[in-house]
């Protein structure tokens, strides 16, 4: 078959026949060319329509545009012509005329670099390599340091503000020639930018590195012409301090003639952290150096705009949306989005609002890994460095599709290789402006952490009610797979309430009796006959502590902490407001002073409550916290004991809570107690949390809620079983030979590598103490039954009577604080 185009004089020969897969030459060499193309025409002077990549493999060829889309493919019947193809050649293929501009190396194709406009215009700026890690005295300064330190704001001369040669000085990278060419039009002298020694004194090594990284990013020194960065350090590593150091530096200094790089900074953060930012500025820089303006009910954006006094505006995401028009009128030079993983969805209002701000220097702060979903990853990258990965459609074709394809079990060797190379390229490119360090970098500065999983024996009333619930018609229906209206979620909810305290279940039953929706079948059939199990005169307001196994353990625990550590405080966490009410009532009954933060606490009061608790003058013994409602980003270092009263499906919720206490600034060893009711659904949820980790490597992502969980009937059967005779079903599952009668630690040689299910693959991933625990890791924890004779831990000793089993793990045992 000959194409009509083959007749055209002056045009090169069409060498295409329809594609027939089976004709492909398996062993033939693949060649890649950069080409320009246009539709076939008789015109002598071609008007090329675009750049493309031509892939030739034996007789077959594919033509891809720079978005990675196929714009032509087929088989060449004149194999020889394709074989001879080289620079300058013109050929007709697939109805298109192409001119070969150059040869692309397989490496450039596999990595995807050849698709980037200009064949790699995203070149890494040489300065980032040349000037890496020049913390102290990297250059002989052109300008001698100013004799007077701490000059007033805005003073410029060509001397560094601080001595770059001083011991321990932290000097930022110098701009390279390219940077100077672009940004130093007035040929000002180059001046060293030196971090204020006042701050350097406090900085941890990883924070120094982080500041240097942020500086290079926002100055456009890492990727030419791009000024965005993502600081994704794990929780508690001091992302706030790193940003404050950067702001203070850029506001007073700059590499060109010492002229400050920025004037105004916008910090957008969750409402509960607005005041935390203000406090951190004050903590690290005092109130004189920098004037920050936190927006709240009494302090509106207008005030900031009118006053020349303030240089930093701190505002919540919600308030930003409300004041967007005013904010757009201010010229901000630096934008920082705290807990910025919320921008992973580019369609939401917050993201579009922030994108509409013209500020080029953008930083996202997040404690959540950002690489686990390639679409969300794109949104975050595109926010900080717009366009760096091309359009969304080209990103999908060049990176996402090959990467995902290569992870399918059915992927061919070729697909695997391409996917891996593209993933590596993407990591390499984005790694220039994403920094993530794990908690390990800070562990050595933290006190010991003693984690305990405590399996509490259920009370008699709990067991009786539990059995009855499991025998209900509603549960039987679930086990037959009749899950139409999600009755299993109602059953799970009832069992969880019962584990916390039977009175919660009683309230639900009574609530349903009175409500007009009592005709909801599932719920009625679940509660049928349950009231009769409670004593006839049962009054939920007068609940007793013996009715709940966990509550008994909690009370003993509080009493022993009070007795053995009278000055230490406890953070008590539940995910349910009703449970917090019970715990609050218990505090009241026992005369324990408490404070409380939950979803209902006005944002404006949150910081005050946190500060009150952290203060050494506070008389509060207990901080009642709803972790889901507002735990993110809070510092609760005033407490050194954390009790997780109930368990959430999402391990991230608990990890969030744990890292509120065990963080920089904590003075005492931190004790963590996770209370679970033995043999019940709580153990099952815990097992699900940990057993899935080995397989899915689920990451800390707070956005995943229980509604996302799908259950098979098999799983429901397991969930709806009560194991009355086991001391600890979790231990039974571990395949551990011990009987729990002495301290036992599983085979410690069997250290499991921690892997994360990241779409970008395992490269780059470091182990993390904030990753959910896995079954095999739990086996390495010390474990023993409640009947064990010699408990060395005085806190556990006091609660053993109500406890069937313990797991314990100590981190940083040797730290001397
Ligand atoms: N170098 C330091 N020395 C002492 N304390 C520090 C240092 N750096 C940070 N901190 C303190 O550590 C605590 C945690 O810092 P920060 O709130 O910035 O963490 P983060 O990285 O933002 O964590 P999250 O992801 O949980 O928000 C704060 O109380 C902060 O003041
Ligand atoms: Mg933070």
TrEMBL record:
**Which keywords annotate this record?**
ATP-binding, DNA damage, DNA repair, DNA-binding, Helicase, Hydrolase, Nucleotide-binding, Nucleus
- Which is an annotated Pfam family here? SNF2-rel_dom
Family matches, as InterPro entries:
Helicase_ATP-bd, Helicase_C-like, P-loop_NTPase, SNF2-like_sf, SNF2/RAD54-like_C, SNF2_N, SNF2_RAD54_helicase_repair
**Cellular location of this protein?**
Nucleus
- GO terms for molecular function, please? ATP binding; DNA binding; DNA translocase activity; helicase activity; hydrolase activity
Q: Which GO terms describe its cellular component?
A: nucleus
UniProt-listed GO biological process terms: double-strand break repair via homologous recombination; reciprocal meiotic recombination
Give the Helicase ATP-binding domain ranges: 220-387
Its chief place of residence is nucleus
Per UniProt, residues of the Helicase C-terminal domain are: 556-717
Region of interest (Disordered), ranges: 1-25
**Function, in words:** Involved in DNA repair and mitotic recombination. May play an active role in recombination processes in concert with other members of the RAD52 epistasis group.
Record family assignment: Belongs to the SNF2/RAD54 helicase family.
Protein name (record):
DNA repair and recombination protein RAD54B
Source organism of this protein record: Acinonyx jubatus
Q: Which gene encodes it?
A: RAD54B
């Amino acid at each position: 078959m000959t194409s009509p185009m083959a007749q055209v004089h002056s045009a090169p020969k069409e060498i295409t026949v329809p594609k027939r897969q089976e004709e492909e030459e398996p062993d033939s060499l693949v060649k890649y060319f950069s080409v320009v193309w246009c539709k076939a025409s008789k015109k002598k002077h071609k008007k090329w329509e675009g750049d493309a990549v031509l892939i030739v493999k034996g007789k077959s060829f594919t033509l891809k545009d720079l978005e990675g889309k196929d714009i032509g493919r087929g088989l060449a019947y004149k194999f020889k012509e394709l074989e001879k193809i080289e620079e300058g050649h013109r050929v007709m293929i697939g109805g298109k005329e192409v001119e070969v501009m150059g040869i692309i190396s397989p490496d450039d194709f596999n990595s995807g670099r050849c698709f980037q406009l200009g064949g790699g215009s995203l070149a890494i700026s040489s300065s980032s390599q040349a000037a890496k890690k020049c913390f102290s005295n990297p250059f002989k300064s052109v300008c001698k340091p100013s004799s007077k330190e701490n000059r007033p704001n805005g003073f410029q001369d060509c001397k560094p503000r601080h001595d770059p040669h001083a011991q321990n000085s932290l000097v930022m990278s110098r701009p390279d020639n390219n940077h100077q060419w672009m940004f130093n039009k007035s040929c000002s002298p180059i001046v060293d930018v030196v971090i204020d020694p006042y701050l350097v004194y406090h900085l941890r090594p990883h924070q120094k590195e982080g500041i240097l990284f942020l500086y290079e990013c926002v100055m456009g020194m890492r990727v030419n012409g791009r000024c965005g960065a993502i600081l994704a350090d794990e929780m508690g590593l001091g992302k706030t301090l790193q940003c404050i150091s950067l702001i203070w530096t850029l506001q007073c200094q700059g590499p060109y003639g010492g002229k400050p790089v920025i004037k105004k900074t916008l910090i957008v953060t969750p409402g509960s952290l607005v005041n935390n930012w203000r406090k951190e500025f004050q903590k690290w820089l005092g109130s004189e150096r920098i004037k920050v303006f936190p927006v709240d009910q009494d302090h509106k954006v207008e005030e900031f705009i009118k006053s020349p006094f303030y240089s930093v505006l701190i505002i919540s995401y919600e308030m930003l949306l409300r004041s967007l028009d005013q904010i757009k009128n201010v010229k901000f030079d630096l934008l920082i989005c705290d807990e910025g993983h919320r921008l992973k969805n580019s369609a939401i209002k917050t993201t579009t609002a922030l994108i509409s701000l013209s500020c080029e220097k953008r930083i996202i702060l997040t404690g959540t890994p950002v690489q686990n979903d390639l679409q969300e990853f794109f949104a975050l990258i595109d926010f900080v460095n717009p366009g760096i990965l091309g359009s969304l459609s080209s990103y999908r074709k060049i990176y996402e599709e090959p990467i995902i394809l290569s992870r399918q079990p059915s992927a061919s060797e070729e697909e695997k290789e391409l996917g891996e190379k593209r993933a590596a390229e993407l990591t390499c490119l984005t790694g220039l402006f994403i920094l993530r360090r794990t908690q390990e970098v800070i562990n050595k500065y933290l006190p010991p952490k003693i984690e305990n999983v405590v399996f509490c024996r259920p009370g008699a009333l709990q067991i009786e009610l539990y059995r009855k619930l499991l025998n209900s018609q509603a549960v039987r229906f679930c086990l037959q797979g009749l899950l139409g209206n999600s009755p299993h979620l109602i059953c799970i909810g009832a069992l969880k309430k019962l584990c916390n305290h039977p009175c919660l279940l009683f309230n639900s039953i009574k609530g349903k009796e009175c409500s007009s929706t009592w005709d909801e079948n599932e719920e009625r059939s679940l509660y049928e006959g349950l009231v009769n199990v409670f004593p006839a005169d049962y009054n939920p307001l007068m609940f007793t502590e013996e009715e709940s196994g966990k509550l008994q353990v909690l009370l003993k625990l509080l009493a022993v902490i009070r007795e053995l550590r009278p000055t230490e405080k406890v953070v008590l966490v539940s995910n349910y407001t009703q449970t917090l009410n019970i715990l609050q009532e218990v505090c009241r009954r026992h005369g324990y002073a408490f404070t409380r933060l939950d979803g209902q606490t006005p944002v404006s009061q949150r910081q005050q409550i946190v500060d009150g608790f952290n203060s050494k003058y506070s008389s509060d013994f207990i901080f009642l916290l709803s972790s889901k409602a507002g735990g993110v980003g809070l510092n609760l270092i005033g407490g050194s004991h954390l009790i997780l009263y109930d368990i959430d499906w999402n391990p991230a919720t608990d990890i969030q809570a744990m890292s509120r206490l065990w963080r920089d600034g904590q003075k005492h060893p931190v004790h963590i107690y996770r209370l679970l009711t033995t043999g019940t659904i709580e153990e099952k949820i815990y097992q699900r949390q940990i057993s899935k980790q080995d397989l899915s490597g689920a990451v800390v992502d707070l956005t995943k809620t229980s509604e996302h969980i799908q259950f098979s009937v098999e799983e429901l059967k397991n969930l709806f079983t009560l194991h009355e005779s086991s001391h600890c079903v979790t231990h039974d599952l571990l395949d551990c030979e011990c009987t729990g009668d002495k301290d036992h630690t599983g085979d410690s040689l069997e250290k499991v590598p921690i892997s994360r299910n990241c779409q970008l693959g395992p490269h780059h991933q470091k182990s993390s103490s904030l990753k959910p625990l896995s079954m095999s890791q739990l086996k390495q924890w010390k474990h023993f039954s409640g009947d064990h004779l010699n408990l060395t831990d005085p806190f556990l000793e006091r609660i053993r009577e109500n406890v069937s089993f313990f797991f314990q793990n100590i981190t940083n045992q040797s730290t001397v604080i």
